[in-house]
Amino acid sequence: MAVLPLACAAACASFASLAQTTLPTVVVSATRSEQPITDVVADVSIVDRDAIERSGVSSVAEVLARVPGVTINQNGGPAASTSLYLRGGETRFTAVFIDGVRVDSQATGGASWNAIPLSQVERIEVLRGPAAAVYGSDAMAGVVQIFTRAGEQGFFPSVRVGLGSHGTREAQVSLRGGEGAFDYALGLGTERSDGFNARPQGNPDDDGYRNESFSGRLGWKLAPGQRLELTWLDNRQKADYDGFVPGVDDQSRSHLRTLGLNWDGRWSDAWRTRVSVSRGTDRYETTPSPYLSETRVDTLLLRNEWKAGPGLLTLDVERRKDNLENDSTVPAVSDRHLDGVALGYGLRSGAHTLQVNARRDDDSEFGAETTGSLAYGYALSPQWQLTASTGTAFRVPTLFQRFSLYGTPDLKAETSRSAEAGLRWQDGTRHAGLVLYRSRVKDLINYVAGPGNCLNGVGDWAGCYGNTGRAQYHGATLSGGLRVGMVNLGGSLDLMRPKNSDTGMLLARRAETQATLTADTVLAGWTLGSELQHVGKRYNDAANTQLLPAYTLLNLSASTTIARDWQLLARVNNLTDKAYESVLGYATAGRTFYLGLTWSPR
């Protein structure tokens, strides 16, 4: 627990930079419009490519584990099944987009985090708080926007190779450039690892994995103010895992694909139109234990933006179609569609910042749902700002929860009401923030063991999904950063209480306390960084009988330029070789080493 006083003393950073990150001037996650970070009332964190490369980790989930308000649980290594809880909310309560393309699994609910290739990621934005009034169903706890590399004028190649513990080796190639009306960005990545034994009580073997990824963005300026862009990403992952049958070496195959076509028309300084057509596909299968599930999310979005004096008015018309192919679902009801219309208005005038959003969604199965949000910020001085917001959100049950062997067709949609208040301070590079939040969820969907109305009502694994109760998520996030002498300090402290409102018990696998403290400096041409991560105790089960003890990790990094255009990175994660579990019965990596070399001419 010694890390907690240190985190408070440092006033802790809004994504404390993995070493130190300079926030981009523009974000899009809060409203779907490009906004200067100074105009955003919402609670947003940004992770840039420099921070990702310095991290030395191999998965998006490991990067997000450093972000305030995020809890990550993994059933083993980077390729294992992964859950993300934003402010304690269920994994399915976070909407995930890759280059604006919605990705989701209608089988598990939420994105397949282990299948998103970190090698292709340029930037990540994390929006904490309900955003259904902007994005529709699913955005109950927040939104994660992931962006691949974009093209620019000129020619910028990059090559990166790396070696790490557990026989890990990786290689990445990136080509970015542009000339005249065209720009492009292409990326290839491969990663292999022998892994480690993820279930010490299961099969005594190492659970390795292999990733092959590709991303691309092609842009064409059709005319002044008119741009067409094609984006795609493809990642194929093969991973070993220990199933439920002793002595059987199971293997999973994941295939994540996104494809988007976007047209952006700027008719004047005040009027802009965007049209996006996209498909996100999430496929998962296992062998020799047979299982197959594939989700496709097709989206058509028409967006108009009008500037009216200091304000911005937006209108969205959106159609989304979900399709599920799963071994245990009823073929006749494998898809559904949702039509949404959303209005937004944002204003910054003097000391006042205002954002209002309203949306109405019509689901082919559940009918209409209306959501809204209101956010306000007031600048007490050039350094201090007060913020407050409130919003409603919902999540339609997945097709698997309704129509699988374990499904209940008459499930209700989960709904929430949330409110938060914040205080921010910024003085040059020094900054601090405090956010208090509270969210209440009704008709929470859980798997209920025992006889039920579903097809799986008998036998050893009897049970089905049901709207079993209510949940409450409330907490506080303290964050900030400052420079002391030659050392940059930053960090974050999260105090959360995600609980079942009916039983008073903590929700499974979510800690009440999390903290991150970072420090970095430059010495003799080397950038040296250190990072403490603390996760408090949790319970593996809803009854709060299976304790998962607290743990603290120490990570170190060092990087330098060894020659023109050549950079060397060394990283040690979990320096003290701490043994811990985020899911009962599944091991995590001990002390690991990583060495990476990057060639990037400028």
TrEMBL record:
Signal sequence interval, chain numbering: 1-19
Keyword vocabulary terms for this entry: Cell outer membrane, Ion transport, Membrane, Receptor, Signal, TonB box, Transmembrane, Transmembrane beta strand, Transport
Domain TonB-dependent receptor-like beta-barrel intervals: 195-575
Keyword Transmembrane appears in the UniProt entry: yes
Main location: membrane
TonB-dependent receptor plug domain location: 38-143
Pfam families: Plug (PF07715), TonB_dep_Rec_b-barrel (PF00593)
InterPro entries on file: Beta-barrel_TonB, Beta-barrel_TonB_sf, Plug_dom, Plug_dom_sf, TonB-dep_rcpt-like
Location(s), subcellular: Cell outer membrane
Keyword Isomerase: no
Membership in a protein family: Belongs to the TonB-dependent receptor family.
PANTHER family assigned to the protein according to its UniProt record, in alphabetical order: COLICIN I RECEPTOR-RELATED, TONB-DEPENDENT OUTER MEMBRANE RECEPTOR
Protein name from the UniProt record: Outer membrane protein
